[in-house]
Amino acid sequence: MKKIVFVFIISTIIFSCKNKETKEVVAEKKTVNENRVVLTNEQIKNADIVIGTPEIKNIHTSITASGHVDVPPQSLISISFPMGGYLKRFDLLLGTSVKKGEALAVMEDQSYIQLQQDYLTAKSRMEYLNADVQRQKELSENEAASKKNYQLVLSEFKTQQVLMKALEEKLQMIGIRPEKLNVNNISRTVNLISPITGYVSKINVNVGKYVNPADVLFELVNPSDIHVAMTVFEKDIDLFKKGVKGKVALADKPDKPLDVEVILVTKNINENRTGTIHCHFENMNTNVLPGMFLTGTFELSNKSATVVPEDAVLRYAGKQYVFIAIADNQFELKEIETGGKEKGFIEIKPQPNNDWLQQKVVVKNAYALLGKLKNKITD
Predict the structure, then answer these.
(1) Helix 147-173 and helix 110-141: axis angle, to 10°?
(2) CB neighbours (10 Å) of residue 21?
(3) Angle at alpha carbon of residue 49, lines to 48 and 51, rounded to 5°
(4) How far is residue 199's CA from residue 4's CA, in Å, rounded to a whole number?
(5) What's the rounded Cα separation, in Å, for the pair 4 and 75?
(6) Are 57 and 189 in contact (CB under 8 A)?
(7) Cβ contact 200:93 at 8 Å
(8) In three state form, how does the secondary structure of the chain look?
(9) Cys-Cys crosslink for 259: which of 141, 174, 282, 334, Cβ 3.0 to 4.6 Å?
């Protein structure tokens, strides 16, 4: 009796283990095959499913991107005044066009008077010393005076030359021409002159404000080098080359595109897996200002690509797929990444260890298979 009970227990354990293994195999098989669907010949015929092979075609690619109006550092000019002073007058508004050499504002301060006074005083002293040097030189040569006197006067003359040169440079820094300055045109005001031809992009001051030498009063933009900086995804960056044409539009004027041409493609990719392309406007628009948001489309030249008919590509749950024929009447759903499309064909991007040209793909009525697969998953 004990032997019978023992045999029964052992049999039960063995059966349980086998049953568990069977369930695991079934579960594993179900997981492996959850993206596969099997149809009968009649079902394939009724659904009008057509199988084809991906092929190589030249395809024209169009890529959309977004970005902003940019300007290189050398074309964005910050305007300060080296001696500081009170801003007496200016008539600028944002976007005002200015020319090189034009007065942007009028500055006023007593330090300007002092600088002019110092220069004219130094100039007068210089004239006296110049004459004295000549006189002492002649006396020294005729031995009517000691050489020591001549050397002292000459030393003072050279020191005065240094002072004169320094004062001349200071005057030129604030826009006063030393050769034009005399006792009759000393002024407490000076003009702040534009160093470039461009337009005003920023105003940081108001009339009557005292500004220090480090304060930025205005910012000017040189429009000759204003350009577009567009953000492009990593997967598309290699498609852009110098000379590629495109159209961009301001966010508030999408119906007024502006022609641009790629001048530079950056060589680095940031943490968002995007890169930047720089473009020049083919016809500059004065209403375009640095920082403005843009959207654009770029038409890229023909390239050789692996393509399938657009009907072969399924869009499901935010992703893209095709069905691959893996055996007689058996199909497997495979996720893909697509590129450009043209004339009813769409590019499918290469995948590791997968030669698309050796695959059989459902090119017509693939959605019928997707419906069958979803019903299978539900069941």
Answers:
(1) 160
(2) 10
(3) 140
(4) 104
(5) 99
(6) no
(7) yes
(8) CHHHHHHHHHHHHHHHHHHHHHHHHHHHHHHHCCCEEECCHHHHHHCCCEEECCEEEEEEEEEEEEEEEECCHHHEEEECCCCCEEEEEECCCCCCEECCCCEEEEEECHHHHHHHHHHHHHHHHHHHHHHHHHHHHHHHHCCCCCHHHHHHHHHHHHHHHHHHHHHHHHHHHCCCCHHHCCCCCCCCEEEEECCCCEEEEEECCCCCCEECCCCCCEEEECHHHCEEEEEEEHHHHHHCCCCCEEEEEECCCCCCCEEEEEEEECCCCCCCCEEEEEEEECCCCCCCCCCCEEEEEEEEEEEEEEEEEHHHCEEECCEEEEEEEEECCEEEEEEECEEEEECCEEEECCECCECHHHCCEEEECHHHHHHHHHHHHHC
(9) 282
217 neighbors 204 (Cβ within 8 angstroms): yes
pLDDT at 15: 43
Residue 244 tokens, joined = 């590629």
Q: What is the pLDDT of residues 266-324, one digit of tens each?
A: 888 888 889 999 999 988 776 788 888 999 999 876 678 889 999 999 988 889 999 99
Which tokens go with 161?
């030359």
Tokens 């628009």 correspond to 285
Amino acid making up residue 37: V
- Whole-model pTM: value is 0.58
Contact indicator for 372, 317 with CB cutoff of 8 Å: no
Q: Report the C-alpha gap between 29 and 53 in whole angstroms.
A: 28
Mean pLDDT of 78-84: 94
